[in-house]
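Quick entry, no commentary yet.
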Amino acid sequence: MTDDTIHLLKECDSGTKTAVNSIRQVLDNVKNEELFTLLSDSLKAHEEIGDELHARLSELGEKGKEPSGMARVSAWAKINLSLLADDDDKTIASLMTDGCNMGVKQLGIYKNKYPTADSDSQKTAEKLINEETALCEKLRQYL
């Protein structure tokens, strides 16, 4: 096992926590039943991936990684200010699409930054990328 494995797992953990927090922030404002179900299902998928990450990190004697304070504040501010201006489902879909795109971008950066991470960690990162990509595509109909 290399340090890259631990670093990649921790970055995935941080990203998963950011996604979970963001989805939870908007769920109460969703009006469309199908959009609510889509986001709820994605929340569950992110939580499951997060659980896998926590178990793997624990096996390695490591703790997870919290999103940076700046990332948390920035996400919170963007979501809340956008919803204050307009809390319709299009705004929520747009916010979540931006978050998915950011997540995919960051995960791609980390996969390239930690190329010697073990195959299980690479697969977990891909699983998270695939979840974000699928959610982004499904959100298009609500934009």
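second:
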Amino acid sequence: MRTTIKVLFFISIILLSYLCIMSVLTPIRFEESKNSREKDIIKRLMDIRKAQVEFKDQKGRYTTSFDTLVIFVKNAKKKIVLKEGALTDKQLEAGLTEAAAVKIVKKGNAQEIAASGLQGFVRDTAYVNLLEAIFPTDYTAETINELGIIPFSNNQKFEIKVKNDYTNSNGIKIPLLEVSAHYKSYLFDLDEQELVNVIDLQEKLFRFPGLKIGSVEEPNNNAGNWE
């Protein structure tokens, strides 16, 4: 009987020691995994923001469809202004503007160009493939299809909210964008209790439980909630 009690006591000590160690290690491991995953998700959110801004600049609005956004990035062109040379202080003081200088150069009159001191002054517009312009090394025509997928999720997509008719205090309409990924989408396979804890903490602080850019409540320049 004494031997049995000793064995049970020894097992209890080992079990309690294990539980104590895990109570310390589990939150640490959870936080490490969370931080590691969020680096990739932040990068993806910033890429989405970049694509949406280009879409808005050309279309005047944001889109709620990743299919539409991906097709746009694949097929659209981006205007690039090639600049060489600059106006001197003397030219500016004489009233020569960038617009006027461009007109003179475009005429192609060598004598007028020389008289205006615009030799070597170049302002040329070119159109390049948007995908290559904004994502030169990050995506190809095939991998850009993954733009809307949340890393470390079960192929879940980021949630897009758009308010294209928001009117500011000056009566000016400003399109608003919000793109988010909930903790549950990319931390679902980690410790369940730690996930509940981190969501509960954010909700008590009235913060979004996850990562997001922008807001459809008020303009914030599409800032990320980690910035």
